[in-house]
Amino acid sequence: MAGEILVGTCGFCLAQKKYYATFPVIEIQQTFYHPPADQHVQKWRQAAPSDFEFTLKAFQAITHPPQSPTWRRSRLSADERKQAGSFRDTPVVRQAWETTRRLANILRATIVVFQCPPRFAASDEHLHQIRWFFRWAERDRLKFGLEVRHPSWTDDLLRALCRELELIHVVDPFVRRSVTPALKYYRLHGIGGYDYQYSDAELRQLLGWCQGRRIYCMFNNTYMLEDALRFRQLLGHAL
């Protein structure tokens, strides 16, 4: 039985005022590459309707090691980057969480998404570091979502880990199924790549997967605006 389905995009794909009038939720991306200034984030919150929902992507210093190509857009020094990534217990990772948490509080965000790099495998070391981080990091009222992409993360392992650490399993539903059925957070990256546009049949398939109390469908492809609008229209016809 489908519950509340929230449709949005990963980043502003419209002028802010028009976006707020069109969608109920957005996932902020700038916080991943290099966190924006508090004043900039405060303007987003102040311009949005009171019931508009923000989610955000955690600063990559928590998740991504210094070899990751995503660091090209960061302003951290080379020495700081050496301490970054993989949820390690370092001053840089701790500070990265405090920064992410502060911005989430300014936005009154509901969910922080921790996206791991594709090579982040389910090793004993990584499991130890994940457990340390999610037990240490203060959540306030935030929910935490974990997106892992390496094939070593089995459903059984993720199900147990999400239950143990109270995590939302963040997935692209065209790649794998969610193991946290009550609350689903879908990030739609495009089938085979970012430049993909979803067909009507694929959007109907996505609608069929929207079962649970609360489902987020966040488009993160080149045609995110067009696909999100088409999906919302399909959703309206289905209700």
Q: Could you give a short description of this structure?
A:
The protein is an alpha/beta fold. The protein contains ten helices and eight strands. It has helices spanning 16-22, 30-33, 38-47, 60-63, 78-82, 91-107, 124-136, 155-165, 200-208, 224-238, and strands at residues 2-10, 25-28, 53-57, 111-115, 143-147, 167-171, 183-188, 212-219.
Overview of the molecule:
With 239 residues, the protein is an alpha/beta fold. It has a single domain (2-238), classed as Alpha-Beta Barrel (TIM Barrel). 40% of the residues lie in helices and 20% in strands. The chain has helices at 16-22, 30-33, 38-47, 60-63, 78-82, 91-107, 124-136, 155-165, 200-208, 224-238; strands at 2-10, 25-28, 53-57, 111-115, 143-147, 167-171, 183-188, 212-219. Helix 9 (200-208) links the parallel strand 7 and strand 8. It is globular, with a radius of gyration of 17 Å. The model has no long low-confidence stretch (mean pLDDT 95).
Keywords:
single chain; 239 residues; alpha/beta; TIM Barrel; 10 helices; 8 strands; 40% helix; 20% strand
Number of helices: 10
**What is the string of helix and strand elements?**
EHEHHEHHHEHEHEEHEH
Sequence stretches where pLDDT stays below 50 over 5 or more residues: none
Which CATH class?
A: Alpha Beta
Count of domain modules:
1
Compute the gyration radius: what is it? 17 Å
Average pLDDT over all residues: 95
Number of strands: 8
Distance between the termini: 12 Å
CATH architecture: Alpha-Beta Barrel
